[in-house]
Amino acid sequence: MINLNREILRDKIHACWVGKNIGGTMGTPYEGRQQINDIQGFSTPAGVVLPNDDLDLQLVWLHAMEKYGPYSVDAKILGECWMNYIPPEWNEYGIGKNNMRSGLMPPLSGEYMNTWKHSNGAWIRTEVWACMAPAAPDAAIRYAREDACVDHGAGEGTYAAIFVAAMESAAFVISDIRALINIGLSKIPADCRMARSIKLLLDCYDNGIDWKDARNQLVEDSADLGWFEAPANVAFSMLGMLYGGGDFKRSMILAINCGDDTDCTGATLGALWGIMYGTAGIPEDWASYIGDGITTVAVNKGSLYGTPTTCTELTNRVYNMIEVTLKANHVGHVRISDDPCSADEGDINYFSNGAFAKILCDKPGCSYEYDFIWGKGEVRYEGDPVIAPGASVNVTIFFRNQFPDPKHLRLRWLLPDGFAVSGGRQDLYLPHINMHADGTASATFTITAGEYVDSVNRPVLEVIAQGRPTAGYLPVVLLG
To answer: What integer is the mean pLDDT of 78-100?
Structure first.
């Protein structure tokens, strides 16, 4: 078991948000600069907290968890929250929202025509998931992936969110940055660009290369991705942690001095540091300089009422969600009590198990999933979700049983005028889950358009499990 002392846990969560505000406020004035900076601290007046979408979006996710609960929150719910509560159209934010307006579900919304899917919008908003799932990295990365895929699909931005969320969750019981980095690496594909940048940084650090040279190597290695991309910027945050030598101020300044998405690199470093060391690890003069307030820029407060206005309020509301979040994710190794903190070595070693993370990372971007209660259905496109008059597209529908009994499925297509479907079948056997069967089945269909296509076309597959009252409906969205 891992025991988390209540007061220490609450203190770490509060320090997370204070550190987030420090880094975001300090880094924002330099955001987007493509050279090495030379900052020495704040360039803003005392008591001023600069607004930052890094924290803003997490206020919306808190609302989603409080309203729908950790059993239900997924990419579809978060996507609907995007449409109502988050006004900006910046980069991947705008692309993801535009795709959803066209009817494309997450993660397809974050994958299709998204030139920013490797960018920074998701790893900067992971703390809420980690703080609701302390010392439970697999639970934290589950929500981080559901969140990230809405506007990053299966891109490096999603891998970055998984990497950072795993570190932050583990940091509630681990304060060794190398151990945390290794845990993060265990959750993402070894050959992805996110892992490549972190490994390059570690090589530079281990070989005694100066931080500026290490920064320049990271920039050069990511040149083909361009600016404002996740691999280099996450590495800049980790550069500050490694080269800062255990000094918060030096670490923060180094990360921001690397340039690029400086509010993000500083804010994430501050949040991670707060989780690792609590409020005692954040210098009092910087904490008091920034204060406890929260200032927003990316939340539609005309539609979303009651978001936290202070780090203290945010801490209390996040803390109140922890136990139900752990229960919803079947986390049995974490206990919260008034007893001193303690951790079993076996539980900590399991933090680096990558089996569940591989399932998350293997999910394709050109897909989406629907829950029928008795089972799940997933639509996977062979190419882009686009169809022309007289043309055809192939889709594969995967079904997963969620109950112990096998099922016979009856499949029926409901088609737009002029559309036709071939291949597949009208009935499908869905086995139950046991040592010999994984409870899955699939069918591939060819959808052919007629002489006319609309701007948005929705062939719908009706799925009925014999003997079950709930019918499933899977729309296959095709842009004309």
So the answer is: 97
> What are residue 11's phi and psi, to 5 degrees?
-65, -40
Long-range contacts of range 203-211, CB-CB < 8 Å, 24 or more positions apart? 205/239, 205/242, 205/243, 211/239, 211/243, 211/254
- Mapped to the 3 state alphabet, what secondary structure does 130-182 carry? HHHCCCCHHHHHHHHHHHHHHHHCCCHHHHHHHHHHHHHHHCCCCCCHHHHHH
145-174 pLDDT, tens digit per residue, is 999 999 999 999 999 999 999 999 999 999
Q: What is the pLDDT of residues 234-285, one digit of tens each?
A: 999 999 999 999 999 999 999 999 999 999 999 999 999 999 999 999 999 9
Q: In what order do the strands lie in the sheet with 392-401?
A: 367-371, 375-381, 392-401, 440-448, 420-423
**Cis peptide upstream of residue 107 (ω within 30 degrees of 0):** yes
Residues 186 and 352: their CA atoms lie apart, in Å, by 5
If phi > 0 it is left, if psi is from -120 to 50 it is alpha, else beta; for residue 373 that is: left
Give the Cα separation of 261 and 259 in Å (integer). Answer: 6
Average pLDDT over the chain, rounded to whole? 97
Place of tokens 């993660």: 107
Quote the pLDDT of residue 18. Answer: 98
Threshold 0.85, pTM exceeds: yes
Cα–Cα distance measured from residue 37 to residue 40, given in angstroms and rounded to the nearest whole number: 10
d(Cα 219, Cα 31) in Å, to the nearest integer?
16
Strand 334-337 versus strand 2-5 pairing type: parallel
Looking from the CA of 345 toward its CB, the CA atoms found within 13 Å total 0
- Residue 367: CA count within 13 A, CB half-sphere: 19
- Do the beta carbons of residue 237 and residue 265 sit within 8 Å? yes
pLDDT reported for residue 435: 65
